[in-house]
Design goal:
Elements: H1 2-9, H2 29-45, H3 54-58, H4 65-74, H5 85-94, H6 107-116, H7 121-137, H8 156-159, H9 179-192, H10 199-203, H11 210-223, E1 227-229, E2 232-234
Antiparallel strand pairs: 1-2
Amino acid sequence: MGRLAGALAHPGCPGGGGAGRGRARLGYPRRAQRLHAAATAIRDEHNGEVPTDAAALRGLPGVGEYTAAAIASFAHGRRHVVLDTNVRRVLARLEGGQAFAPASVTRAERERAEVWLPDEPAAAAAWAAASMELGALVCTADNPDCGRCPVRAHCAWLAAGRPAWDGPPRVGQAYAGTDRQCRGVLLGVLRDAEGAVPRDRLLAAWSADPVQAERALASLLADGLVRSDADGLRL
């Protein structure tokens, strides 16, 4: 793990000097950049070893509560509530009797998840992984296979006849037309170019909304993913 962190922290790794090249069209260069920053912090502040403590993990760039809990649980066998979309759906059906969890994590959800979490750290880590897999493979969002569910006898939602969701409409994450897509298009132009690209030519790649193109370019410059020099713009 330490060797991997050292490799990711190298300036030549995507996220360092070439953050935009490998993922320019995917719209995720910030993730590569944060991965590089986290690896650098692991190398410089943790002797090249990924922290095992969730609080220390949260101190790494780009690592939030969910990621820190997941790493501490899955990689190090620590006892932590790991709430992803799948786990939240399983618990909403199993105990809450609802088809889906609320749009954002609530205090009641955290308390419910804590009750279900075994006290023994290794068992808690196994439960975290198992509940996530249950939601991903069996208790799915659109086609739950209740006949295969190992906890169907205890499921409040199944016992109630699998009532339809009566909460706010569920909206998927949009990509088309977003700043993220715009950034990806601009990075794609720079990635494919052999040298610097004039500013006007780069912005013309996103002609649908010139203001959005300017905003996206400004954010790329601020993030350090794009450089400006006398010849134009480049990665």
